[in-house]
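Hi R.,

As promised, here are both runs. First protein below:
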Amino acid sequence: MRVVMVAKQKGGVGATTLTRELGVAAAAAGKRVVFVDLDPQGTLRGWWNRRTEGQSDDPNPALAAPSPSQMEDAIRQLKAAGTDLCIIDTPPSVHPFLAGVMKLADLILLPTRPTTDDLDALPAILDLAEEAGRAFAFVVTQAPPGKSRLYDDALPILAQRGRVAPPLRIRGDFPMAAATGRAATELAPKGKAAEEVRALWHFVAADLAKIGSKRTSVRAS
């Protein structure tokens, strides 16, 4: 099982949108996915409830709700249950429990809008990710569609500190899909939002595969 954590210092950066879109894309690719919602706002849980209303048991993606102190046990249980991918959504802050959860992750995604205010808020959460010693990547969210100086100016700033994954731009399909418990890839599979989600999933999947290969090599040696 692989664990992806979505962490942010600042609210309103589209982290929950990133989480659910990534999870649905992974499930569509044949992965058994479980979300973990550690954000007290419960936005991910609300979307998942809309999604699963009236459905039979065993939804994919599924949702787990351990407390932060239960995360290590929860990860072990999900792995034993045959889960392929666990995606953790976290609250917008440098909460004391985040450092411990980061150490359970294989990959940490750091969403940020391409504004000066948002970029200025990154160092605290970035420092935690670096201290955890886990792979991480920035994801630019809510970037203007098309050619954007705002986005172009943000890229080199982020690239100085780490890798930058494919972006999720401002697209109407994201909120429209969320309103009915769906993802953009389900609402409009051929739309721009869906293309961006698939590009992000391919980036994440490739990264997780590399991590798995490195671990296999270490065990073999």
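And here is the second one, sequence first, then its structure tokens:
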Amino acid sequence: MDQGTEFYNVHFKNLMKKYKVNHYSTYSTKKAAIVERVIRTLKERLYKYFSLNGSYRWIDILSDIVKDYNNRWHRTIRMKPCDITKSNEKKILNSVYKHIKLATPRRYKVGDIVRISKNKHVFKKGYTPNWTTELFKIVKVRITNPTTYLLEDMQGTPISGGFYEEELQKTKNADVYLVEKVLRRRGKKVYVKWLGLDSSNNSWIDSDNIL
């Protein structure tokens, strides 16, 4: 789900706990196509109502539209949504997603050091780096389909949300860091700002460690 406050509040979190729902966000560019299609259908029916009645008051009609939607035969599931029960939901799920391949063997493991994909905006230059300079550590592998990963930065601070495999890149040189700027010098020590890290990570290092 997205990061809206309607999903991240005490009441909703308690509801998720009550029904044992795994509640998390991926912070990904991937979208929930099925949910968005349902929303689009509801919007289309609402706007038909608005046009016919010359009013944008939706609260009086929304529940009726949802009820009508749930009582109509759906091509994808080959039945009415209101007829889905605990006893047949697994059969329907398998039927709808029978063409979907199960997740392939996981590419990364806990402890791997990775970079995160920079979600490329359509106007960003193609020759700019596509991966973060900052490094992160995988702390948990979620058994989802597809697999998602939880990360923390190199100071041990958890990173919000989960990430898909294609949004991560394992680094070959986890112990190599780039210096953005030398801020101060003191004998054989230099105080540096690291590329891709904020100023809280500035530190003194031996000048001999800079290549």
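A quick note on the second one: The radius of gyration is 25 Å. Let me know what you think.

Best,
J.
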